[in-house]
Write a structure and sequence with these properties.
Elements: H1 16-28, H2 30-39, H3 50-64, H4 71-80, H5 84-87, H6 89-98, H7 106-135, H8 140-157, H9 165-182, H10 194-200, E1 208-213, H11 219-232, E2 243-247, H12 252-264, H13 268-273, H14 278-291, E3 296-299, H15 306-320, E4 324-328, H16 343-361, E5 365-370, H17 374-378, H18 394-398, E6 401-406, E7 422-430, E8 436-443, E9 448-456
Parallel strand pairs: 1-5, 1-6, 2-3, 2-4, 4-5
Antiparallel strand pairs: 6-7, 7-8, 8-9
Helix pairs in contact: 1-2, 1-3, 1-6, 1-7, 7-8, 8-15, 11-12, 12-14, 15-16
Length: about 475
């Protein structure tokens, strides 16, 4: 069946009367009306008529410069710019005012203009998507991601009003009151590990958190434990939150089995070998029943590029309102547009895209990363540094928090190597708080991290000493 031809004889959506109403009201009460227009996101291109676009732009400039705005001053400004006659002369301005008896209904006119502009944007971007589809040869998933991004930007544009300063102060005071009343400092999403939360104050929206380690240190296990804690609401004053996990290395079957075994405290090798006692079986069934209540969305698509990952995360956010994204791991992502420029440039672009995703979705994004071999070549204790992040310094630059995981028992020369359960998480970068080391227990047999008594580095001191508590 032949494709239905697109209609080309229709005008894009717009309202001549509403556009004239906005401009007429602005000439009557410029300060209030232009403030309303800007708050609602109106720009010169929001108007369909070229003459209306030009006049709105001039009005915005005059308000910005602090000039008086009325029929006389606007006419003089348009005359100085040499555009008054092209717009229709002074009768054009008088007609706008005459057709708008009062500025009281300006907000109503503004909303009509904004709605029509959104419809024109939808038509424009849908048309571009159709046009691109006919000659596209770089993979349908890439184009789908770009189209979704284009439409998501339209949706987000509706929420970009700048809140009044008093509102921001009020929200900050409410947060302070909550902390004071609950006697807890976690303002973000609790990880379920109290010593880590004590340093980070939880995982915060728009933050990109890097968890980096050498292979076989347990970074995937720690990430899965955090996913489980967040999704089940484990931790003081914590509620269950939908969580997305993108695994580019392990299959979903492996990850789910690992999570069940870790929660049941059953060695995974016993399950794989079929050596299950009645007690182990009961524990596994109980763990599976508990995990069944968690809202975890597990995507194990191999060879995923970062734009497709953003597209999938965007859909999960829209459909399930996910509150945390975990990516395992950064070096296995691709960014085809930058692949020809070398791995370092591609990794920098991937890091930037993941940080942009955290800001776009307004949720924390926990990204696992490999460390280079530098720690092992630098010393026999292999204590990692920020500079050891593999492939690109942009990872360190883009990250809000960098966690460096190590297990001293893996290195005999480490003074802590005798403690086989000790795992050290070095908060090496914390854009909005202190750094320091957090000690945890890692039960390797169960691939499970646990809180450890006295887990925060005793040398950690705040930049400014806190005030003494009252009686």
């Amino acid at each position: 069946m032949a494709a239905k031809a697109a209609r080309t004889d229709r005008l894009p959506p717009y309202s001549e009367d509403a556009e004239r109403g906005v401009l007429g009201a602005a000439l009557l009460d410029a300060g209030r009306v232009m403030d309303l227009a800007v708050e609602r996101g109106l720009r010169s291109e929001s108007f369909y008529s070229g003459a209306h676009q030009q006049l709105f732009s001039v009005l915005a400039e005059m308000i910005h410069e602090g000039r008086a705005v009325d029929l006389l001053t606007v006419g003089d400004r348009l005359r100085d710019l040499g555009v008054l006659e092209n717009l229709g002369g002074t009768p054009f301005l008088h007609q706008l005012v005459d057709s708008t008896p009062t500025a009281a209904h300006a907000e109503y006119y503004i909303e009509i203009v904004r709605q029509k502009y959104l419809l024109r944007l939808i038509i424009e971007r849908a048309g571009k998507a159709m046009e691109d589809s006919y000659g596209w040869d770089e993979g349908a998933e890439l184009l789908l991601g770009q189209v979704e991004q284009a439409f998501f930007e339209i949706s987000e544009a509706r929420r970009r009003d700048v809140p009044p300063w008093p509102q921001l102060i009020k929200e900050a005071v409410q947060e302070i009151e909550t902390i004071y009343q609950l006697k807890k400092g976690v303002t973000g999403i609790p990880t379920g590990f109290h010593d880590l939360d004590r340093l980070l104050l939880g995982l915060h929206p728009t933050d990109m958190i890097i968890l980096a380690a050498r292979p076989s240190m347990g970074k995937t296990s720690l990430a899965l434990n955090i996913a489980e804690n967040v999704a089940l609401g484990i931790g003081p004053e914590s509620a269950p939150r939908p969580t997305a996990v993108f695994s580019l290395e392990m299959s979903r079957e492996q990850l789910v089995r690992r999570m069940i075994c870790a929660r049941a405290a059953v060695p995974s090798h016993k399950l794989a070998g079929g050596y299950l006692s009645a007690d182990f079986h009961q524990h596994l069934m109980q763990a599976a029943s508990e995990l069944n209540k968690a809202q975890i969305f597990l995507d194990d698509t191999a060879g995923l590029d970062v734009l497709e990952l953003r597209s999938r995360a965007r859909r999960l956010k829209r459909r399930y309102d996910i509150q945390l994204v975990i990516v395992d791991y950064l070096q296995m992502l691709n960014f085809p547009q930058y692949s020809a420029e070398g791995r370092q440039r591609e990794t920098a672009a991937i890091s930037g895209a993941l940080k942009a995703m955290a800001k776009e979705l307004r949720i924390p994004v926990l990204v696992l990363s490999q460390l280079s071999r530098a720690p092992e070549t630098r010393s026999t204790t292999a204590i990692p540094r920020l500079s050891d992040l593999r492939d690109s310094g942009s990872i360190e630059q883009d990250a809000d928090v960098v966690l460096l995981l190590r297990r001293p028992c893996k290195y005999p020369d480490d003074k802590l190597s005798d403690d086989k359960t000790l795992a050290v998480v070095d908060v090496a970068k914390h854009r909005n708080g202190p750094t320091g080391e957090v000690k945890m227990n890692f039960m390797e047999e169960y691939t499970r991290f646990e809180n450890r008594l006295g887990g925060v580095d005793e040398d950690l001191t705040p930049v400014r000493a806190p005030p003494e508590e009252g009686p």
